[in-house]
Amino acid sequence: MNPQDLAPVLIGGAWRPAAAVDAFSASNPATGQTLAERFPVSDWSDVDAALDAAVQAFAAMQMLPAERLAGFLRSYAEHLEARAEDICATAAAETGYPVSPRLKDVELVRTVDQLRQAAAAAVDPGWRLPVIDARAKICSVLEPLGPTVVFGPNNFPLAFNGVSGGDFAAALAAGNPVIAKAHSSHPGTCRRLAECAQQAAQKTGMPPGTVQLLYGLRRPDGLRLVSDPRLGAAAFTGSRTAGMSLKTAADAVGKPIYLEMSSVNPVVILPGALAERSQEVVNELVTSALMGTGQFCTNPGLVLLIDGADAQAFLAAMAQRYRSAACGTLLSKGTQQGLMAGIQALTRAGASVVCGNQPAARPGWAWANTLLSVSGQQFLTAAKALQTEAFGNATLAVVAADSAQLVELLAHCEGNLTGCIYSAQDGRDDVLYDAVARVLRPRVGRLLNDKMPTGVAVSPAMNHGGPFPATGHPHFTAVGLPAAMRRFTRLACYDNVRPHRLPPILRGSAAPGRP
Q: For residue 397, which of 321, 312, 273 has the smallest C-alpha distance?
């Protein structure tokens, strides 16, 4: 293996050959064919060099005005727009997503928008929550935490990418350099994004090491990275297994780590809604559940109804739609294997296959749209196993015996990113809604009414987070600025510090006086 034949890594402001211990290539999931570009799995020496460079960059960034950070983020957005054709074509080859509308018209637009929102937030001092107690001569403010590593997911190659996504934008806007760990499903996309980021960093005079990129790491080195004393924080989006391994390593040394892991996103459909607009809800649910082949962290994977003629008709209509809808492309062979394993776990726990659960009759990585069902009593018997995430185009319907059992089912639900309740528009479900919402609300980060959860707006009010196992901590959001930025900060307190020695944001007439 010749490192010169592999894609270079970005360390300390320069592209250079990796200290490679292995190599890999991405595959086109629509065809199953291996792509030509080769990428390195780095030795620890690359990680060590990136950490050293990030420490130096962080020290320099503390002296920069917020406008410099904002200028970098705006310039980066412009570079992405200028190179949109190349980036989206590469992402399409590595993910199977269509260039248009999915990548170029939707996801790239979202990506540059959140970079620009991060730029605007960076220059607004209010996000740092300055507090001045003039009487006690004490003040406090949020300050950058330090070098941050971001592990991006496979399902959003642009908007959640480790080198361009929401975690990246939030960490940079808060004043921290980022070491991005590319996802193995779309390393070529990551490389092109990082090239744009590096060009923007050079154009705006950011310190070398502001943005760095490593493609692959051995598992022990990944664990060592998130626990390294030079690191300020880590952010991860992916499977619960990988996330919990990283969390264990980071927690052992007290390092902050922000995780988005597993969510089945329960959708509760109350009887009045079924009676009023069953077909409308079927359409919304099927569209949401099969969008992007179900590969969204907010995919509605668990549907709860109360048994009866309307519920059975609803499930029959849903099954018919699943059978007739074309099945999309899964992101990788590993994604297909994970989906199959999730479905197997659900059937072992008592779920019955209504339709699907077989290979799709098409090239590449694909599995038939799968609907499963289980009774409310079966769910109560094996609630944990029946909440196994089958990431992809698979949905589990839980049919409760009555209203009381429906509420009991929700009391056994784990933490989720979202929870939805569909109810009658004429108010006939209001009493039951109150009982359901009271139990569901503390178990989800975002509660929705009469709306599917798939969309995650980049809004200051958004909470893209939730109780475990959806995330590692229920207090934080990965989407929505400036709230997402505050994850990558620490609370700095100044007691009786002379005014001219305070950060500029804390100076003024209310600051402590000179002794």
A: 312
